[in-house]
Amino acid sequence: MEQDLLDRFLRYVRVDTAAVDEADDYPSSPGQLELGRMLVAELRSLGVADAAIDDHGIVTATVPATVPDAPAIAWVAHMDTSPEASGAGVEPIVHRDYPGGDIALPGDPSKVIRVEDSPVLGKLVGTTIVTSDGTTLLGADDKAGVAVIMTAAARLMADPRIEHGRVRIVFTCDEEIGRGVDHLPPEKVGAVVAYTLDGGCEGCIETETFSADLAVVTVGGRNIHPGLATGRMVNALRIASRFVDRMPWKERAPETTSGRQGFMHPYVLEAGVASARIKILLRSFETDELARYAAELGRIADDLAAEHPGSAIDVEVTKQYRNLADGLASEPRAVALAEEAMRRAGVEPITRATRGGTDGSRLTELGLPTPNLFVGMQNFHSELEYASLDHMEKAVHVLIELAGLWAKEKA
């Protein structure tokens, strides 16, 4: 199993599936379709007859039940990778029998995975770790999840003695830009519960996420030759800079908050004299707090508009996803059986909140309870990303145990 899992993972990360934030198409990049077609072919080769990719690039398949009356469950992972670092030309490096210490990445000497910055690394001595060469991200987020699901599916298809109900397999697109389930209604999943395989630390079951909105601030200015600008120019770039400066970063920024504290995170600024645009992530475990964040941005806009006559400042807020915990209570077995599956697989379960979100946040909001399970990825969204093959293999065993436990439940 270990070699099969590794081979799959290495094959998948070499496909450039980076999401494109500003694209109108779904999926936003052609590599996601390429990987989706690859996965369909592999599933069919395993004997999964209904494996298919739809017009939106979403892959679905069904591992047939050996216990026909058992509830159907779903395993979900996303094929895209973050646009925050390049996913083109990934050259994975397999570090077998990791000796400990920092890992220098040969493609870029400035990129070093340091134990002091990633405490999990220090616990992986003697195991197999996969990194990129430092010039790209690795893509373990979430191709580790894809590889784990594919390996578990292969195991179920190869051994009819394993008791399980119908297992639905779903691979989504564009999760990293908040669009993973735009074309995935729960009825298409066809399960009583789902599990996203999109987590990091060994044993983690994420049962709570941020609630999330996106704010886009547009600033309209007035451009004119700077030699003739007195009393006439309205510099949108300057106004946008002041907007960001007035946001309460010491109290509500990712770099100054932790635990259950929310934040407002400006992450894109495109600006010139005539116009500017700021994209700001709004995140809180308390959904109602998002409205207060939006109102605060509105006050900043009003103040700056008054200070800069002739400017036009607009704040538009769109909903992204809501706290996973809000909907999980409707099916308590989802988490309880995941915890038991981990114990049976020799993994100590850790139930926790995550300072992020997954496709499961939106699926749960739509009525399909979907906690998130670990697959052993670390430092995701950066060139310092790495994956633990040992943790990925444990995740496969957890899925097998989980399918067996659900086989004993009533629909």
CATH topology of the largest domain: Aminopeptidase
Query: Any guess at the CATH architecture of the largest domain?
Result: 3-Layer(aba) Sandwich
| CATH homologous group name of the largest domain | Zn peptidases
Supply the number of helical segments: 10
Straight-line N-to-C gap: 31 Å
Describe the largest sheet: 8 strands, mixed
Strand % is 15-25%
Order of H and E elements: HHEEEEEEEHEHEEEHEEHEHHEHEEEH
The overall strand count is 18
> What share of the residues lie within helices?
25-40%
Which stretches are poorly predicted, pLDDT < 50 over at least 5 residues?
none
- CATH class designation of the largest domain: Alpha Beta
Radius of gyration: 23 Å
Strand arrangement within the widest β-sheet reads: 1-2-8-3-9-16-10-15
Structural class: alpha+beta
The total number of structural domains is: 2
* Average pLDDT score: 96
